[in-house]
Amino acid sequence: MVNLHTNLLGMSLDNPIIPASGTFGFGGEYTKYYDINILGSIVTKAITKEPRTGNPTPRIAETQAGMLNSIGLQNPGVDHVIAYELPKMKTIYQKKVIANVSGSTIDEYLDVIKKLNEVDNIGAYEINISCPNVKDGGMAFGTSEIMAANITRQCKKIAKRPIVIKLSPNVTNIVAIAKAVENAGADGIALINTLVGMAIDLKTKKPVLARKIGGLSGPAIKPIALRMVYQVYEAVKIPIIGIGGINCCEDVLEFILAGATAVEIGSANLVDPCICKNIIERLPCVMEKYGFSSIENLIGGAHETRNHRL
Amino acid sequence: MSHLVVKANDLIAFDTYKMILINALPHRPGQFIEIKVSDTMTPYLRRPLSVADYKNGELTLVYKVVGLGTKILSTVKPQSSLDVIEQLGNGFNLDTVEKNITLIGGGCGCVPLLFLAKELRLRRKTIKFIAGFQSSKDCFFVDEFSQLGAVKVITDDGTLGTQGNVITAMNHIIESYYYAVGPKSMLQAIATISKWGQMSLEERMGCGFGACMGCSIMTSQGIKRVCVDGPVFNTEDIIW
Prior knowledge:
The complex is a heterodimer.
Chain A: E1 6-8, E2 11-13, E3 17-19, E4 60-63, E5 66-69, H1 78-92, E6 97-101, H2 106-116, E7 122-128, E8 132-133, E9 139-140, H3 145-158, E10 163-166, H4 174-183, E11 188-191, E12 195-197, E13 200-201, E14 206-207, E15 214-217, H5 222-235, E16 240-243, H6 249-258, E17 262-265, H7 267-271, H8 275-289
Parallel strand pairs in A: 3-17, 6-7, 7-10, 10-11, 11-16, 16-17
Antiparallel strand pairs in A: 1-2, 4-5, 5-15, 8-9, 12-15, 13-14
Helix pairs in contact in A: 2-3, 3-4, 4-5, 5-6
Chain B: E1 2-13, E2 16-22, E3 32-36, E4 47-55, E5 58-64, H1 68-73, E6 81-88, E7 100-106, H2 113-122, E8 126-133, H3 142-146, E9 150-155, E10 162-163, H4 166-169, E11 177-181, H5 184-193, E12 197-200, E13 216-219, E14 222-225, E15 232-234
C-alpha cells in the first residue's frame, strides 16, 4: 500500500499535490470538473490590501512548452476575500488552505496578514516576494537577501500561522536568498515563481503582452525549478514546496527526490482542469512501478545525505 | 472535459475548415469550447473556438488556420477523438422583444451567427445579415445565411457582393437591434454608431473557464472575464 501522506508546516496533508496561486482562483471554477477535496491543500489567488484590477490585456501569451502571464495580481482585496471568497471556499473545500499574500510595501503585507489571522480555514501563509517593492525603486523584494530577510522577519512577527516564502528565480543566487529567509524566521520555502520572459507578435512587430514582459511557466521551466529546489535543499533545513512545470506523476516524484515536501501545480491546471485529480489517482501506481512506498521516505532521496527535519 | 469523436473536418473556404464533433453536450449560440489540438507540449494551451452550430449531440466548429495550433487541427482525420472543454461562455441573450434583428459578422465573426440565426428564426425574428470578408475566396455560410434571412455580403476587394467593409456597407446607420461579432476595430466602430445590441468579444485566454484572470476586461459593471462573464456583452457596457 503506497502512502501519499506528507506533513507540511503543521498541516497533515493527504497527498503532496497543491494547486499554485493564480491558477486555481479560490477553487470555485474547478468544482464542475471534480471534487476538489481530494487535493492536499490549495494556495489561494494572491491577496492584496486593496482590490486590484491587474494589467491591461493581452495578459497571456503562449510559448514553446509553456506560457507567459502578466495578470498583475488581479484580486478583490483582502476585505472582500475575507467577507466572501474564503467563506465560499470553506463550503467547497473542507481542508485548510494556504493564503497567498502579496503587496507593494511591507506594511501592505502586514495589513493583509493581520486580517487573515482571524480567518479559521487558513493553515499557512505563502508570502509572494516576487512583487516589486515600490519603496525601493520597484525592485522585487525577493531579489536581495536584505529585503527578503526583512520582509520575512516582519511577517513572521505578526503571523499567527506558519509562513512559507515563495522565492523568485530571477536572481543571481537563489541559495543565498533561501538562507537569508530561513535565518529571518521563515517556516518554509516555496520555489520557484515564474521566470521573466517575452514573446513578440510578427503581425504587429510588438511584444504580445501589453506589459511587454511576463512570467514564464510550464514544462519549459521545470529543469531550472528542479535544479533550484535541489540546491536550496542542501542549504536549508526548513521544508520546501517545489513548483515549476509539473504536469505528471513522474515530475512530482522528481521534485520530491530533489527535496520537496510537497509540490504546487500551476499552469497544468489551465490546460487540463483535472490534472491534479489525475495525478493524485495515478501517483500510487507510478510509485509502485519504481518501488517507492511512501512520499515522506522519498523526500530529498536524490541527495547523498537527507538532513531535514520533517 | 470530454473526448469527442470527429465526424468531419472539411475545407469550406480559403484556409477555413468546418469540423463536426459528435457526442457533445448541449451548447447555446455564442458559446465556445477549448480544444486541445495535440498531445504534445507545443502548442501548450488549448485553442478557444466558437460554436457554429449544435444539434442532437453534433457540435459544429468553423475555424481559420492562422498559426501552429489551427494548422494541426486542420490535419485531424474523421474518427479521431479530441479533448474538449465544453459549454464555455455565457452565449447570446436571445430574450430581446425586437422583431427585426441585424446580425453583423466580420470574417470569422460570422462563425457564431449561424446557430444564433437559427435560434432567432425559431423565435420568429426577421433577420438581416451583414457579412464582411477579405475576398470571395474567404467567404463561408453565405448560402446558409440566405436560408434564414436577407444577406448583404461585403468584401474588401469587391470580388463578391459590395466592395468595402461592414461599416461602410451600413452607411453608418444600424436601424435595428443587432448582434455583432468580429475584429475589435470593427466592433468599436459599430459601438460608435449604435449601442443597441450585443457583441461577442475576444481576448487571449489562459484557461478559458474563469480560473486564471487572463482575459479580464473593464466594463460599466466592473471587471469581467471574457471567458465566463462573456464573451457576449451588451454594447453599452463595454469600455473601449
